[in-house]
Every structure is written in structure tokens, then in C-alpha cells.
Design goal:
It is built from eight helices and two strands, in the order βαααβααααα. The protein has 202 residues and is mainly alpha-helical. 33% of the residues are buried. Keywords: Membrane, Transmembrane, Transmembrane helix.
């Protein structure tokens, strides 16, 4: 995930797990030539960062949910966040830019990515509550089917909010994590329970 650019470029920054927009991104190239002790230090910093992100979102969802999360589900969630965080750090996080010269391509790409993001929106909370990864994926998919437009609007709002807050001077990145992360976490719990009720009645 990269920080949003300035000027006329509009960027949507979104991750499948609750977090904000980071201020810096380390790629694998940046770590290859580091001395061993610096490499270990950088690795520890990344480990602390992803642990803090996962713990913060887990605690928020625990607070917002009436259901207790199992140790197995919590473990799977932390591992999943770690895997997505690693993917993000090597430069493949969801980050779309739009400019007047590539509007059609941008809109098409946005549609594809938003479709995937909508179908996997409930994956973080489903990992905590469902018996396995495949069950979590199926649940996330089924509960999002009838609510695509609402979830897409929420995803774009979260992405724009994270990017806009991250651009603020000095405290932008902290604000992005402090505001967008909890909002995302609470939205996961509330909508997961609400859409469960609607799927049962439909």
C-alpha cells in the first residue's frame, strides 16, 4: 500500500483487514542489501507493526461482538493478517489511481477490485467465527451477495478516508490508523450480524 499522491490524482487505499494507511513501505529490494543486524532490526519492526495492527483490530472486534472468539479462530486471524501484511509490503496491496488519461481503465479495474473486495469484506470476522478458512470464505461470499452496492460504498469510503487522513501533516498516519481501523472493525461486526439476520429471512 502506498500513500496517496497529491494534485489531481485520486487514490483509493484499502486493505481487507482493519487498519489505516501506513506512511512508509519497505519492499524486498530495500531489505536485501542491509547488514545482518539492521535486517534483523527491520524485521522485528515489521513484526511489531503487524502484531499491533492485528491485536488492535482483534480487540475492537472483541469489544463490538457479543460472541466470544475461539483460540483457533484468533490464531487463524492473526496468521491471515500477517500474510496479507507481508503481501502488502512487497507491493501488491490494493491501491488504485485514476487520472483523466486512464479513466476507462481505472474504472474497469476499480470495478473488478471492488467486486473482489466486497465478496471478501467479511473474511476477517468470518475467520474469527467460522470453523475453517473455506467456511469463512463461503460465509463472506454469501453474506455479501445481496449487499454489494452498500458494501462497495463503504469500502470506497474507508479507502478514501484512510488515504486522506494519511496525507495530513505530522499526525496523518496515526489518525488514519486510529480512525479508519476501529470504524472498519466495528462495521465488520455490526454488518456481519445484521446481514446474517437478513440472509436467514430471505
Amino acid at each position: 500500500m502506498r500513500r496517496p499522491g497529491s494534485g489531481s490524482t485520486l487514490q483509493v487505499v484499502y486493505t481487507p483487514y482493519p487498519t489505516g494507511a501506513p506512511g512508509t513501505v519497505r519492499t524486498l529490494d530495500a531489505l536485501v542489501d542491509l547488514p545482518a543486524e539492521v535486517f534483523v532490526y527491520a524485521l522485528m519492526v515489521e513484526l511489531v507493526a503487524v502484531s499491533a495492527v492485528a491485536a488492535a483490530s482483534w480487540l475492537t472486534m472483541t469489544w463490538a461482538s457479543d460472541v466470544s472468539f475461539s483460540p483457533h479462530g484468533s490464531f487463524v486471524y492473526f496468521v491471515g493478517v500477517g500474510g496479507l501484511y507481508l503481501t502488502e509490503r512487497v507491493g501488491t496491496a490494493i491501491s488504485l489511481e485514476y487520472s483523466p488519461g486512464s479513466l476507462l481503465v481505472g474504472v474497469t479495474a476499480l470495478g473488478i477490485v471492488v467486486f473482489i473486495a466486497v465478496r471478501t469484506f467479511f473474511l476477517p470476522i468470518a475467520l474469527l467465527l467460522e470453523p475453517g478458512i473455506l467456511a469463512a470464505i463461503r460465509t463472506s461470499w454469501s453474506r455479501s451477495v445481496s449487499h454489494g452496492f452498500a458494501l462497495a460504498a463503504l469500502i470506497v469510503t474507508l479507502g478514501l478516508g484512510a488515504g486522506w487522513l494519511a496525507e495530513l501533516p505530522a499526525v496523518g498516519v496515526l489518525l488514519s490508523a486510529a480512525v479508519v481501523g476501529p470504524v472498519h472493525s466495528v462495521a465488520l461486526v455490526v454488518l456481519y450480524e445484521r446481514y446474517s439476520d437478513s440472509s436467514v429471512t430471505s
